[in-house]
Amino acid sequence: MIRIENVSKDLGEFRLNDVTLHINEGEYCIILGPTGAGKTILIETIAGIYHPDCGEIFLSGINVTDVSPKDRSISMVYQDYMLFPHLTVEENVGFGLRLKKIAKNEIKKEVNEITDLLGVSHLLNRYPDTLSGGEKQRIAIARAVITKPKVLLLDEPLSALDTRTTGRLQEELKKMHRLTTPTKIHVTHNLEEALSMGARTQL
Predict the structure, then answer these.
(1) pTM, whole model, 2 decimals?
(2) Taking a C-beta distance cutoff of 8 angstroms, is the pair 81, 108 a contact?
(3) Is 168 helix (H, G, I), strand (E, B) or coil?
């Protein structure tokens, strides 16, 4: 599904050095490493935010190394949520579908389904600055998944949350993985989180 072949990227303070990684379709893969190890650079390179200095990236057998991020069918969730503050929860979640010019009634249907799955359908008329950290992260995940990407990248998605919220969201992520199709790469520095979440952990 995802093949990363001998990828290197030098950003000065952070770098990747000859990374090779194969991830199967539908797998929930954890990449575990300390802060500054290059985990975020790796998934941002997979997403196309950075172009590798050398090496190649394949998605479903197709070389996407030079493909634009918008054409890779990859969504990404950052630890700081990156929600649009001027949009409601409903508008945030449906944003990607509006860009695809999906019909309004279909967007509403899809938004209701994914927010029901993540337990945030009661928040649809709220704005991000009125939400808790756990609620914001659920909304960010819903927004990423609703476009039905082939790959979902999760950058330390639980690191900013309290212990109780982290436990609940771990269970919701597991449930979502069973019910949705994207291959997932979840990066973390937390060993306990890695052992709890991943089908396979890469160090």
Answers:
(1) 0.88
(2) no
(3) helix
